Amino acid sequence: MRTINADDLIIPIANKIKHALTHVDGKVLQKLKDAQSTETSPLCKWALGQIVENDEIAAHENAYACQDCGQAVLFVSAGQDLHVSGNLTAALNKAVELGYETARKSVADPLTRTNTQTNTPAIIHYDIVSGDRLEVRYMAKGAGSENMSRIYMLTPSKGINGIIESAVDCVKRAGSSPCPPVILGVGIGGTMDVAALLSKKSLVYESENKRADELELERKILEAVNRTGIGAQGFGGSVTALGVHVLTAPTHIGMLPVAITVQCHSDRKFVYTA
């Protein structure tokens, strides 16, 4: 059995958080550039250009890509043949605290609204997997987009069309609030809580090990959302979403839970392996 020390994870993960907050995901930045080149609306083309320029300046000057540095969401996969000495959760929270040392602190008590001043506790999801490795997937989740996320408890008769209509409804209700163009995580199946978790998880796992019908559904949702005409920053254009990522789980024969997590274009994330 392989052993690692939890405290040895603190500095490497903290440094990756600092880098992520100033460097928008490279794939997303390229999609923004592609959208700018294909967008037909002059105003949306200008808005996309402003977003790209902002992201490039942020990376060059190590400045925060967005003033909302988000709540840290971590998906941790631990191999069953791995032993972690020390307190892993405490170490991950310390890494988040150090990673957000000079960033805006956005975590508060939900009732008193008292800020914790450390951007902790992080939202941490654990999975036990085969092997002896530890993988940490991080995503910064801002409030503007998260507030627009929704859950739809559909009946099975709604089918694929109901899933697509739910995604479109979510985006239409959101309008310009999540700073489009957005990225949608779509969780389908399980129970209400599972669907919500899948919708988050899909944003950090994207298109890994997808079935053909899941990929086809992603394409259909993306096309339908972009037909809404909301456009970049809500100015009315052809690119409202940059991507759609679907994850599914078996569900009850009488249910069709659908959760939509809305992520803004300032997509900050990384994968760390130990």
How is this structure best described in words?
The longest helix is centred in the first third of the chain and has 20 residues, at 42-61. This protein has 274 residues and is α/β, with parallel strands linked by helices. The chain has helices spanning 10-22, 26-38, 42-61, 88-99, 143-146, 159-174, 192-205, 212-226; strands at 2-5, 71-79, 82-85, 123-129, 134-141, 150-154, 182-189, 241-249, 256-263, 269-273. The chain has 8 helices and 10 strands. It has 2 domains: 2-23 and 65-141, no CATH class; 144-266, 60s Ribosomal Protein L30, Chain: A, CATH 3.30.1330. The protein is globular. The strands form 3 sheets. It has a 4-stranded mixed beta sheet, with helices on both faces. A 4-stranded mixed beta sheet has the order 6-9-7-8. Helix content is 39%, strand content 24%.
Give the secondary structure arrangement, pairings included.
Elements: E1 2-5, H1 10-22, H2 26-38, H3 42-61, E2 71-79, E3 82-85, H4 88-99, E4 123-129, E5 134-141, H5 143-146, E6 150-154, H6 159-174, E7 182-189, H7 192-205, H8 212-226, E8 241-249, E9 256-263, E10 269-273
Parallel strand pairs: 1-3, 2-4, 7-8
Antiparallel strand pairs: 2-5, 5-10, 6-9, 7-9
Helix pairs in contact: 1-4, 2-3, 6-8
Provide a concise account of the structure shown.
This protein is an alpha/beta fold and 274 residues long. It is 39% helix and 24% strand.
Summary tags:
274 residues; alpha/beta; 60s Ribosomal Protein L30, Chain: A; 2 domains; 4-stranded mixed β-sheet; 10 strands; 39% helix
Percent strand: 15-25%
The residue-averaged pLDDT reads 97
Assembly state of the chains shown:
single chain
> Could you tell me the number of beta strands?
10
What is Rg? 19 Å
- Specify the biggest β-sheet: 4 strands, mixed
CATH topology of the largest domain: 60s Ribosomal Protein L30, Chain: A
| Share in helix | 25-40%
CATH architecture classification name of the largest domain: 2-Layer Sandwich
Give the overall shape: globular
- The number of helices is 8
- From N to C, what is the helix and strand string? EHHHEEHEEHEHEHHEEE
What's the CATH class label of the largest domain? Alpha Beta
- Tell me the distance between the termini: 14 Å
State the domain count.
Answer: 2
**Poorly predicted sequence stretches spanning 5 or more consecutive residues:** none
Strand order of the largest sheet: 4-2-5-10
Structural class: alpha/beta
